[in-house]
UniProtKB/TrEMBL annotation:
Ranges annotated as biased composition (Basic and acidic residues): 1-27
Designated name of the protein: Catalase
E.C. no: 1.11.1.6
UniProt-listed PROSITE patterns: CATALASE_1, CATALASE_2, CATALASE_3
InterPro entries the UniProt entry points to: Catalase, Catalase_AS, Catalase_clade2, Catalase_clade2_helical, Catalase_core, Catalase_haem_BS, Catalase_immune_responsive, Catalase_large_C
Length: 682
């Protein structure tokens, strides 16, 4: 397809329309198209007799049901996805010939699946875990998949260790405990004995591993890839997704509670944001290093446990992805989508990163078992939007009807078609990197420094972020039963920072290390700290705690909050309508039973003149929770009395006021701040 811009942007949606079935208002039939007259009672020999084999409708319905499940992904089983488009800001012609990166303003349809790594398909979404961030670009030259994570480095350097890593992190095999958690002995035993994981562990213990929303996390291609331009010149490249809402997280206590209050918190947030038009946006950035600079850094640029500090290699923003459509059917799209880091287009190629090289095998292999055969590329969600022709044939579930008798290359019966494409015609050619070496089972010496970037990360954290990391280590190791494992990990991280290791040691009852044998790194990278992220109030959810005879300004303030793009939600004692002092009505959207402070970014307490003691008790619980989670709290009218009565130990992030415009100005500033780490909570 070599269509115009608009056609390309809509091409995936149009293609999917051919496969959509609209069942509503239709007659029920069997899968053979036979109209069904009864779907409640099976065919029996007598009213109270046994069901008969000849009831083909029963057999078909039951058989299909019995086979509804497919194996979940061996990792990243719990995920959620959406459609969208990628728009290019600036041509990348200088670096790559990839067609979708040539013309500013061009739009490419995308499908993005976010996921946790460790848990099963039904697990809670607020696990402390890496998040998958996989994007399929349906380009006119074929599908390009950027299969990344929200953390820019990985646990291991060579793919051959991936099964070991995953065996260690998954629930322990003798009792299948714990679900969706790294806080257990086998994982930390792996870490201590595979110290290349040090840098990634620092990220996993940081707030990055408990994101507030899929909409508020970065994405990274992790590996170093290659760009190749029309002239055959190559560049090393790393990919970044930067959310326009900034990078934000929840606190660990909140994450654990959220898993109970709403284990679907992240998917619901994504789904509802798209439904209400708060489309998630991420800018695409690239870091580029020319081939001649391959060896100028003090780390190996192919090592997937290293970052390219943004201050040294700036991230060039080249386009924006907007997610603007939810799927129609989660199984058909989200579950059956098959990503593969090896799905590339001309102008994008691999490097010798041994982790990437191994991934190139694993993804097709896993789809074969998960999707039941080699034809998964024919599933609607996986089909490229450009035509595809080759001599591959048959296999389970084959849908394409290849016409003609020729299914081999070369041939004369079909004029030697499907024919090959020259480079000029868009034929893919692998970059001709010169390789000179012996076949060895080895790790390059340049991959052997495991701690410098872990220290760089630690140095870059703000004080509150450092505290959270210490708490996370203390929680995780605290859940390990083997003292020896706890001791090994503490000793390992004394190579990063002695105080970190000592404080964790104290918390988990092992000996405090006394020497830091790690690298002496003074450098920091401000881009790594969430303190320096974008802060704005947009799309934030505010619980408005409101009761009978509320102040007449409450609806006015709520309207103003809506107008600036936040989502105020009324929370009260009972569902239904309540009356204000001037007779105005407000509908209570959630009760103290169905809502909870952890489900909101902020709370606004207004109460009412006729609220019960019970209201005050429930509101006090909300306020206390929001307070210990460092959230902005606003209060007006009777709400102010309640806050004063509670006598909280700090007023950081607490905005009180009755005059709407002054109150709003301060409160909105507080909401943008997201959390008040300087709040004393005890
Ligand atoms: Fe992987 C899935 C990301 C290393 C083997 N991986 C998977 C998904 C993401 C990543 C986002 C879910 C895709 C989806 O939503 O369907 N994986 C990564 C990143 C890695 C990484 C960023 C390191 C930089 N993975 C990695 C290695 C191997 C695998 C080293 C094996 C050699 N990954 C798989 C897999 C999965 C997978 C087993 C499971 C389901 C699937 O592929 O489709 O093949």
């Amino acid at each position: 397809m070599r269509g115009n811009k608009k056609e390309l942007a809509d091409s995936k949606d149009k293609q999917l329309e051919n496969y959509r079935a609209h069942d509503e208002g239709k007659k029920m039939t069997t899968n053979q198209g036979l109209r069904v007259s009864e779907d409640e009672f099976s065919l029996k020999a007598g009213e109270r007799g046994p069901t008969l084999m000849e009831d083909f409708h029963f057999r078909e319905k039951m058989t299909h049901f019995d086979h509804e499940r497919i194996p979940e992904r061996v990792v990243h089983a719990r995920g959620y996805a959406a459609h969208g488009e990628f728009e290019l800001y600036e041509s990348m012609k200088k670096y790559t010939k990839a067609k979708f990166l040539q013309e500013p303003g061009s739009k490419t349809p995308v499908f993005v699946r976010f996921s946790t790594v460790v848990g099963s398909r039904g697990s809670g979404e607020l696990a402390r875990d890496v998040r998958g961030f996989a994007t399929k670009f349906y380009t006119e030259e074929g599908n390009y998949d950027l299969v990344g994570n929200n953390i820019p480095v990985f646990f291991i350097q060579d793919a051959v260790k991936f099964p070991d890593l995953i065996h260690a992190v998954k629930p322990e095999p003798h009792n299948e405990i714990p679900q969706a958690a790294t806080a257990h002995d086998t994982f930390w035993d792996f870490v201590a004995n595979n110290q290349e994981s040090a840098h990634m562990i620092m990220w996993a213990m940081s707030d990055r591993a408990i994101p507030r929303s899929f909409r508020m996390m970065e994405g990274f291609g992790v590996h170093t890839f290659r760009f190749i331009n029309e002239d055959g010149e190559a560049f090393f490249v790393k990919f970044h997704w930067k959310p326009t809402l900034g990078v934000h997280s929840v606190v660990w206590d909140e994450a654990q509670k959220l898993n109970g209050k709403n284990p679907d918190f992240h998917r619901q947030d994504l789904y509802e944001s798209i439904e209400c038009g708060d489309y998630p946006e991420y800018e695409l950035g690239v870091q580029i290093i020319s081939e001649k600079d391959e060896f100028v850094f003090d780390f190996d640029i192919l090592d997937p446990t290293k970052i390219w500090p943004e201050e040294d290699v700036p991230v060039k923003i080249i386009g924006k992805m907007t997610l603007n459509r939810n799927v129609d059917n989660v199984f058909a799209e989200t579950e059956q989508v098959a990503f593969h880091p090896g799905n590339v287009v001309p102008g994008i190629d691999f490097t010798n990163d041994p982790l990437l090289q191994g991934r190139l095998f694993s993804y097709t292999d896993t789809q074969l078992i998960r999707l039941g055969g080699p034809n998964f590329h024919e599933l609607p969600i996986n089909r490229p939007v450009c035509p595809f022709h080759n001599n591959q044939r048959d296999g389970y579930g084959r849908q394409t009807i290849n016409v003609g008798r020729v299914s081999y290359h070369k041939n004369s019966l079909a004029n030697n078609t499907p024919s090959l494409s020259s480079v000029d015609e868009g034929g893919y050619t692998h970059y001709q990197e010169k390789i000179d070496g012996r076949k060895v089972v080895a790790r390059s010496d340049s991959f052997k420094d495991h701690f410098s970037h872990a220290v760089l990360f630690w140095n870059s954290m703000s004080e509150p972020e450092k505290e959270h990391i210490i708490e996370a280590f203390s929680f995780e190791l605290g859940m390990c039963k083997e003292k020896n494992v706890r001791q090994q990990v503490v000793d390992m991280f004394s190579n990063v920072d002695l105080e970190l290791a000592q404080r964790v040691a104290k918390n988990v009852g092992v000996q405090q290390p006394v020497i830091n044998r790690g690298p002496k790194v003074k450098k920091s990278s401000p881009a790594l700290s969430q303190e320096n992220t974008v802060k704005k109030p947009d799309t934030r959810k505010i619980a408005v705690l409101v009761g009978e005879r509320f102040n007449k300004n409450v609806p006015v303030i709520m309207e103003a909050l809506k107008n600036i793009g936040t989502h105020p939600v009324t929370v009260g004692e009972k569902q239904g309508f309540i009356k204000g002092e001037n007779g105005d009505e407000l509908e209570v959207a959630q009760t103290f039973l169905t809502g909870d402070s952890v489900l909101f970014d902020s709370i606004y307490v207004v109460g009412g003149e006729d609220t019960s003691h019970q209201f005050f008790e429930s509101a006090a619980y909300f306020i206390n929770e929001a307070f210990i989670h460092y959230k902005p709290i606003g209060a007006s009218y009777q709400g102010r009395e309640l806050i004063e009565y509670l006598n909280l130990p700090s007023n950081a992030g607490i905005v009180m006021g009755d005059a709407p415009s002054e109150f709003l100005e301060e409160f909105i500033k507080a909401i943008s701040e997201h959390r008040f780490w300087n709040r004393k909570t005890y």
